[in-house]
Amino acid sequence: MMDWTDRNCRLFHRALTQHALLYTEMVTTGAVRFGPRERLLGFSPEERPLAVQLGGSEPEELAEAARICEGVGYDEINLNVGCPSDRVQDGRFGACLMAEPDRVARGVAAMKAAVSIPVTVKCRIGIDDQDPEEALDRLADAVVAAGCDALIVHARKAWLKGLSPKENRDVPPLDYDRVFRLKRRFPDLPVSINGGIGSIEQARALLEPRDGVALDGVMLGRAAYQNPELLLAVDPLFFGEAAPHDDARAAVESLFPAIEAHLARGGRLSNFTRHMLGLFPGRPGARAFRRLLSEQAPRAGAGLDVLRAALDLVGDARTPAGLPAIEAAA
């Protein structure tokens, strides 16, 4: 989710669900230690609960970065062992670390010794020619022994040789059953599943027990970003509480004060609205909504009047898309 889940995106998503755990973009240990911390790590209290996603492989550097992030106020440190991008491979972190479970374990142990908040790992089921049964078990055995508090598993391999990062999100086949087998081996370890989950209905189905084994969570990435309106169903279906707003338009309107403050600091309207382009799928006026925001919001001086005008283009904008079917399924 690099370049996607920035603080403006997270504030928007928090207006749609109060309880889901949100994650930052991946930030490297070097950036945490030496970069502009407010720009890289700053967040609004309203975004919590919030996990910071770290990229790195040196235990001492991971420990220092984790201490800094805990001091900033994050609720969880998540080590990324799943990202397949070339930039990540060059830095010896991300998915390539699936080949070095002992190194990952040393990093987890160092962070656990440095902070009091949970330390978790997000990984793949394997990379390249690895056997997913052996590769995932080796990584899990190592990090659990090191004190890892939870695993989030993207249920497909990453092919570091031969596939682009984009292709790695779709081409390798999904193997959800592999994640359930991991949970069977570690019944007391929180295990969440990720990868190819495109709807709330699918997420809920993956939380149903299989052969007596139930997972502990579901992570949504592209689906939540590309169709953020589905997040309105999260609190009612998974946490037993009403959504923070009745519909997506109300959620957007609740952000007006934050957007105005952002504009007053010299920010652009598009810093917020680029994360809203997936709203109102299939609704009359949705295309005009996207076009207006895409064309007008990036312009210097664009203000809330542009966003209001875009919202007014959407027919039945106060009917949350998809929720009636979800409620019927419940």
Description of the molecule:
With 330 residues, the protein is an alpha/beta fold. It has two domains: 7-227, TIM Barrel; 248-312. 44% of the residues lie in helices and 11% in strands. The chain has a seven-stranded parallel β-sheet with strand order 1-2-3-4-5-6-7. α7 links the parallel β4 and β5 (150-154). It is globular and about 55 Å long. The chain starts with 6 loop residues before the first helix and ends with a helix.
Set out the fold topology.
Elements: H1 7-14, E1 22-28, H2 29-34, H3 37-41, E2 50-55, H4 59-72, E3 76-81, H5 86-90, H6 101-114, E4 119-124, H7 132-145, E5 150-154, H8 165-168, H9 176-185, E6 191-194, H10 200-206, E7 217-219, H11 222-226, H12 234-239, H13 248-254, H14 256-264, H15 270-273, H16 286-296, H17 304-312, H18 323-329
Helix pairs in contact: 4-6, 6-7, 16-17
Number of domains: 2
Strands in their spatial order, largest beta sheet? 1-2-3-4-5-6-7
Kindly state the percentage of residues in helix.
40-55%
Order of helices and strands: HEHHEHEHHEHEHHEHEHHHHHHHH
Silhouette: globular
Structural class: alpha/beta
The span between the termini is 30 Å
The CATH H-level superfamily of the largest domain is: Aldolase class I
Biggest sheet features:
7 strands, parallel
The CATH topology of the largest domain corresponds to TIM Barrel
In DSSP terms, counting alpha (H) and pi (I) runs of 4 or more, how many helices?
18
In short:
The chain is built from 18 helices and seven strands. With 330 residues, it is an alpha/beta fold. The protein has two domains: 7-227, Aldolase class I (TIM Barrel); 248-312.
